[in-house]
């Protein structure tokens, strides 16, 4: 159905795709894999008419096509759902689905009834029920995802590209999405699926095409490869173990943070936990269990009915993240692009953010030489791959963007680092690098709280695990008890004690 042969793409003098091939058949789910920067998104933008190839041939149904723009790709039956949604948040689902393609009646007026009927029919095919007349900005992420898919199908897409569709979905939402994908496959739709979660590839896909550094590596059937072979194809080397070895517990390590009681809402459960110097404590639990809210409440960034904690043995109440910053606590937020970085700024601007006092040369002047040297030192510590400190953050891969956030807090001389979903949306090679950095930091005495929805990550990285349920910690596990079964047992059935 879709054939790409010898696709090359250059931006100026830099060639980013070096003769890539991709063949996708009707009625299959075809994975497109590779590390960040491998060329997946560029290739898909060529498929959807956003970029034009420098060389190569595109065929749809055996016919050679040259897409001048996105509309021509749509006319050829190609729909794409980008990782960053293209919905207009203050318009309804129906208005988004038919934007610029509104259905009119014989008087030239909008036929809202016809658009609603068509929208409901498409959503019924997806087995999705969502409100059509509220702004999509008020819908859940999963509902917005299905609006994007419905929008593509409303264009009669026969080739559907899904770019990281599961990145922010809960397990049950992912399961529903996979059900929809299987139904589309059964109707003859070709699905190109991009994901960093390899377990999803083995569950849902039929074949895989792997790119590395802008080059075609291989196409193979899912049944013919295993996890290790796939990782080796993606990164060019074997990664024997993503998680660095855990150090022996240090019972004499200084107490860095001691939360005596933290209650998110009156009448809810009260959480208690400790964080020692050089320790990584994992926050585990199902989505909505209160992990992130507890971390934010510690920093004064989320309401709390009560919060009593000690930092380095001194009772402290933080009223804002700025207070946390002053006391040596840094937060790497779940959404690095919207909350952790200003992506249109350079690396040096992002790393220096909130820390310009460090470079003050005189009352109104900044020592830019000192700032640049400090930035380069922080970049070297976390091994940021970029053309230099002045490179814009939005030109970096997801893994390198995460490293810039980490570098900022190192530049602030933090003692406690809170990592919220530290490897979300980054590839397997970059994940291994982030894990290694976290272990290096803990060996240097940094104390880390790691919030993660990925159980292998929690098990592989945590020295102790606080398990959350219904807004509070229901258990703390350590040693040999840090395993998926034990954690899930507490996360799903742990007893929650409500306190007035």
From TrEMBL:
Species lineage: Bacteria, Pseudomonadati, Pseudomonadota, Alphaproteobacteria, Hyphomicrobiales
PROSITE patterns with a match to the protein in the record: ABC_TRANSPORTER_1 (PS00211), ABC_TRANSPORTER_2 (PS50893)
Enzyme nomenclature, EC number: 3.6.3.17
Enzyme class: hydrolase
Domain ABC transporter positions: 2-238, 249-495
Membrane topology: Peripheral membrane protein
Keywords: ATP-binding, Cell membrane, Hydrolase, Membrane, Nucleotide-binding, Repeat, Sugar transport, Translocase, Transport
Gene Ontology MF terms in the entry: ATP binding; ATP hydrolysis activity
Protein location: Cell membrane
Similarity remark: Belongs to the ABC transporter superfamily.
Main location: membrane
InterPro entries in the cross-refs: AAA+_ATPase, ABC_carbohydrate_import_ATPase, ABC_transporter-like_ATP-bd, ABC_transporter-like_CS, P-loop_NTPase
Name of the protein this chain belongs to: Ribose import ATP-binding protein RbsA
Any single Gene Ontology cellular-component annotation: plasma membrane
Pfam families named among the record's database cross-references: ABC_tran (PF00005)
Keyword Iron: no
SUPFAM superfamilies linked to this entry: P-loop containing nucleoside triphosphate hydrolases
């Amino acid at each position: 159905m879709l054939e790409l042969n010898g696709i090359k793409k250059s931006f100026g003098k830099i060639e980013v795709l070096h003769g890539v091939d991709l063949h996708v058949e009707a009625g299959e789910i075809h994975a497109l894999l590779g590390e960040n920067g491998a060329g997946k998104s560029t290739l898909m933008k060529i498929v959807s008419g956003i970029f034009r190839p420098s060389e190569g041939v595109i065929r749809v149904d055996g016919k050679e096509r040259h897409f001048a723009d996105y509309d021509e790709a749509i006319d050829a039956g190609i729909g794409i759902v980008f990782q960053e949604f293209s919905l207009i948040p203050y318009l309804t689902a129906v208005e988004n689905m038919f934007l610029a393609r509104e259905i009119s009646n014989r008087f030239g007026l909008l036929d809202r009834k016809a658009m609603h009927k068509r929208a409901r029919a498409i959503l019924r095919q997806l087995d999705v029920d969502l409100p059509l007349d509220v702004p999509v900005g008020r819908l859940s992420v999963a509902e917005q995802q299905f609006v994007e898919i419905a929008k593509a199908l409303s264009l009669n897409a026969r080739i559907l590209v899904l770019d990281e569709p599961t990145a922010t979905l809960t397990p049950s939402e992912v399961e529903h999405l996979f059900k929809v994908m299987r139904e589309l496959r059964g109707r003859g739709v070709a699905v190109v699926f991009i994901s960093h979660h390899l377990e999803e590839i083995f569950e849902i896909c039929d074949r895989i095409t792997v790119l590395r550094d802008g080059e075609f590596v291989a196409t193979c059937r899912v049944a013919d490869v295993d996890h290790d072979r796939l990782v080796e194809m993606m990164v060019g080397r074997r990664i024997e173990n993503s998680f660095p070895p855990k150090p022996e517990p240090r019972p004499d390590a200084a107490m860095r943070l001691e939360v005596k009681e933290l209650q998110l809402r009156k009448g809810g459960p009260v959480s208690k936990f400790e964080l020692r110097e050089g320790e990584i404590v994992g926050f585990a639990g199902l989505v909505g269990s209160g992990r992130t809210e507890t971390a934010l409440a510690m920093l004064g960034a989320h309401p709390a009915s009560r919060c009593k904690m000690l930092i380095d043995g001194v009772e402290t109440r933080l009223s804002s993240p700025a207070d946390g910053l002053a006391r040596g606590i840094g937060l790497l937020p779940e959404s690095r692009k919207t909350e952790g970085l200003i992506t249109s700024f350079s690396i040096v601007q992002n790393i220096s953010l909130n820390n310009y006092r460090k470079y003050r040369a005189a009352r109104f002047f900044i020592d830019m030489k000192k700032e640049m040297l400090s930035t380069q030192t922080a970049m070297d510590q976390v091994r940021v791959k970029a053309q230099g400190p002045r490179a814009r953050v939005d030109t970096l891969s997801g893994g390198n963007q995460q490293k810039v956030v980490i570098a900022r807090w190192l530049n602030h001389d933090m003692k406690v680092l809170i990592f919220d979903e530290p490897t979300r949306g980054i590839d397997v090679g970059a994940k291994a690098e982030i894990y290694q950095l976290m272990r290096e930091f803990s060996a240097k005495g940094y104390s880390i709280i790691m919030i993660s929805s990925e159980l292998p990550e929690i098990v592989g990285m945590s020295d102790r695990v606080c398990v959350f349920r219904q807004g509070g910690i229901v258990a703390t596990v350590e040693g040999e008890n840090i395993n998926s079964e034990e954690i899930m047992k507490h996360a799903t059935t742990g007893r929650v004690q409500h306190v007035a």
